[in-house]
Specification:
The protein is built from 14 helices and 25 strands. It is of the alpha/beta class and 553 residues long.
Length: 553
C-alpha cells in the first residue's frame, strides 16, 4: 500500500540552546506523570507537555479505571473480558500483566492521594461498563475520575523538586545517534520561563506518553492538543506502529448538530452501566438482540449498531434514555455530564439525550514490548500513543487509564535495571518538510468521510488521494500550527494505509466491502513503518510473512 509522501523530519530553526537530562518524558497524563514519579528515583527527569500540565486527555476520562478490586472478581475474569473485547488481536501476556499488576497499581494511586468514591463502609464503589461482566470500575467524583487522578498526580509531581517540568512546549523530533538509537529530542518552547524557541535536550532515554490522535477527525472527545504528535515523531524516527486501523469511536457522544466541530462532550459508558439504554426516534430499544450484553456490549458493537440505525432511518443521531435515574442520581453520580447536557439546553432528568459516535481512542499506536521499549533503542512508549498489545482490535472500557498506569511503572522498572548510556547525536540526514496549517479542516473532513466508522476500499483510496493533495500545498512558516498539521497528515497517511490493507471487519475496523471477520488471513497484527524517503507506509515483514503463510495453506 503506497501512502502520500510525508516529511521525514519537521522543518524548524536550528536549536538555539541545549540541555542534558537522564530521561525526557513527553506528556503529562496518567502515563507520563506516573513514569516521571518513578524514574526520578534513579536519574534526572524532564517532563515536557504541550499546554499546562493538566491539559491532556486524562482529565477528561469520566467513567473510571478498571481493575479486579471487588468481591467475586479476579484478574482472570478481567483478562477474559479484555481478550473478548480485543477480538482476537490482544497479546495475552500483555493483558495478563495489566490485570495482575493493576489492583496494586490502583492502590498505590490511592496512597499517592487519589480519592475514589466509596460506599458507606469505606469500600470502593465499583460499577460496570460495556464489555465487563463484573462491577470493577472505580470512579471519583461520580463521573470525574480522570480529573481526580490528574489532580493527585500533578500535586505529587509539583511536590517532587527533582522533576523538572516544561509547559507550553511541542517536541519536534528525536535526536538520533549513528546507530539509530535515541540521543535526545528537539523541541519548541512557546515563550514560557527561562527556555524559549527551538532547543535540544540530550538524554539517555525518551519516554513517549503524548496521548492520541483525535484531532484527525471533525468530531472527537479528545482535547485540542491530541494531534498525533508522538506517533508522527516515532514514525519519522523509524519506529514501528501497530494496529493503527483500530480507532475506537465512542458510541455515546453528545450530538450538538451537524455543524459542531472539534472536541465534543462525552456521555460516559457508565451511564449505560447504571441502567440507561439506547432508543431510536420512535422509542424502540434497538440494542436488544444485537449482543448478549445489549446496551452494555463492547464499544465497537454499540457504535456499529447506532450507525446502522442512523443509516436505516436517515437520522443523524440516536437517543439515550436515562430519565429513570431521577434528579438525585444524576446530581450525585453524574454531575459533570448533567452540567454539560444542561449547558447545551438538554435536561437528561426529563429528556432523551441525543448521541452519535465520535472519535475517542486509538487502540493501536507505537509498538512496544512488555516493558514499553519500542523498535527504536532508547525510545519507550506508554498510554494511548503506545500499542502494548493490551487492546487488540477494540479497547475494553476503562482499561486505558489502567494501561497507562501499569506500563509506565513497567518502563520505570526496566530503565532502573538498564538505563542506556548518553549518546552523541549524529548529523541528521532526513529531509525536512512542512505541511500548510490551513489544510487541517479539510483533513478532518477527509478522514471523517473516508476513514471513519464505516470504511471501504473506495472511500479509503479517495482519502489517500486527497491527503496527497493536501501535502502538496505550499507550506507556510515553521510554527506550532504547521508542525501539528504535518503530524496529523503523517498519522492520517499511516492510518489510511493500515485501513486499506486490512480487508476484513474486526473490532473497531469496519469495512463495508469486507463485512466479515476473517481469521484465516487477518488473525495477525498489522505493522507499519515510514519508508526511508517518506514516500510510503508499508506493512512490516512480520505481517507480510503471516499473510503469505496463510495464503499458502
Amino acid at each position: 500500500m503506497t501512502a502520500p509522501a510525508v516529511p521525514q523530519r519537521l522543518a524548524a530553526p536550528a536549536p538555539g540552546w541545549t540541555d542534558t537530562v537522564d530521561v525526557v518524558v513527553i506528556g503529562s497524563g496518567i502515563a507520563g506523570l506516573t513514569a516521571a514519579l518513578r524514574l526520578r528515583e534513579f536519574g534526572s527527569v524532564l517532563v515536557v507537555t504541550k499546554d499546562v500540565v493538566a491539559s491532556g486527555s486524562t482529565q477528561w476520562a469520566q467513567g473510571g479505571i478498571a481493575a479486579a478490586l471487588g468481591p467475586g472478581d479476579s484478574p482472570e475474569d478481567h483478562l477474559q473480558d479484555t481478550l473478548v473485547a480485543g477480538a482476537g488481536l490482544s497479546d495475552p501476556a500483555a493483558v495478563r500483566a495489566l490485570v495482575t499488576e493493576g489492583p496494586e497499581a490502583v492502590h498505590d494511586l490511592i496512597e499517592l492521594g487519589a480519592r475514589f468514591d466509596t460506599l458507606a463502609g469505606g469500600d470502593l464503589s465499583l460499577t460496570r461498563e460495556g464489555g465487563h461482566h463484573r462491577n470493577r470500575i472505580a470512579h471519583a467524583g461520580g463521573d470525574a475520575t480522570g480529573a481526580e487522578i490528574e489532580r493527585a498526580l500533578v500535586a505529587a509531581v509539583k511536590r517532587a523538586d527533582d522533576i523538572r517540568l516544561v509547559e507550553h512546549a511541542l517536541v519536534l523530533d528525536l535526536l538520533l545517534a549513528d546507530d539509530g538509537a535515541v540521543a535526545g529530542v528537539t523541541l519548541h518552547v512557546m515563550g514560557e520561563g527561562q527556555l524559549d524557541g527551538v532547543g535540544a535536550i540530550r538524554s539517555r532515554a525518551v519516554v513517549l506518553a503524548s496521548g492520541g490522535l483525535g484531532q484527525l477527525y471533525a468530531a472527537t472527545t479528545n482535547p485540542s492538543v491530541s494531534t498525533g504528535d508522538g506517533m508522527a515523531l516515532a514514525l519519522r524516527a523509524g519506529a514501528k506502529v501497530r494496529d493503527l486501523e483500530f480507532i475506537q469511536f465512542h458510541p455515546t457522544v453528545l450530538w450538538l448538530g451537524k455543524s459542531a466541530k472539534g472536541q465534543q462532550p462525552l456521555v460516559s459508558e457508565a451511564v449505560r452501566g447504571e441502567g440507561a439504554f439506547l432508543v431510536d426516534h420512535d422509542g424502540n430499544r434497538f440494542m436488544q438482540g444485537q449482543h448478549e450484553l445489549a446496551d452494555l456490549a463492547p464499544r465497537d458493537v454499540v457504535a456499529k449498531a447506532i450507525m446502522r440505525q442512523m443509516l436505516a432511518t436517515g437520522k443523524d443521531h440516536m437517543l439515550l434514555d436515562a430519565r429513570g435515574f431521577g434528579d438525585e442520581k444524576w446530581r450525585v453520580r453524574f454531575p459533570t455530564i448533567l452540567a454539560s447536557c444542561r449547558s447545551h439546553g438538554i435536561d437528561p432528568v426529563r429528556e432523551l439525550i441525543p448521541v452519535a459516535p465520535a472519535c475517542h481512542y486509538s487502540s493501536g499506536g507505537v509498538w512496544t514490548d512488555l516493558h514499553g521499549q519500542t523498535s527504536v533503542p532508547g525510545l519507550y512508549a506508554c498510554g494511548e500513543v503506545a500499542c502494548t498489545g493490551v487492546h487488540g482490535a477494540n479497547r475494553l472500557a476503562s482499561n486505558s487509564l489502567l494501561e497507562g498506569l501499569v506500563f509506565a511503572r513497567r518502563i520505570a522498572a526496566a530503565l532502573a535495571d538498564d538505563l542506556p548510556d548518553l549518546r552523541e547525536p549524529a548529523d541528521d540526514g532526513r529531509v525536512p518538510g512542512l505541511v500548510n496549517a490551513d489544510v487541517v479542516p479539510e483533513l478532518q473532513r477527509v478522514m471523517t468521510v473516508g476513514a471513519g466508522v464505516i470504511r471501504s476500499a473506495t472511500g479509503l483510496a479517495d482519502a489517500g488521494d486527497r491527503l496527497g493533495r493536501l501535502i502538496e500545498q505550499p507550506a507556510g512558516e515553521p510554527g506550532t500550527p504547521s508542525w501539528e498539521a504535518t503530524n496529523l497528515v503523517t498519522v492520517a497517511s499511516a492510518l489510511v494505509a493500515a485501513g486499506t490493507a486490512r480487508e476484513e471487519s474486526r473490532g473497531s475496523h469496519w469495512r463495508e466491502d469486507h463485512p466479515d471477520r476473517d481469521d484465516t488471513v487477518w488473525s495477525g497484527n498489522l505493522d507499519l513503518t515510514l519508508a526511508g524517503d517518506g514516500s510510503s507506509a508499508r506493512p512490516a515483514t512480520a505481517f507480510v510473512a503471516l499473510k503469505e503463510a496463510s495464503e499458502g495453506k
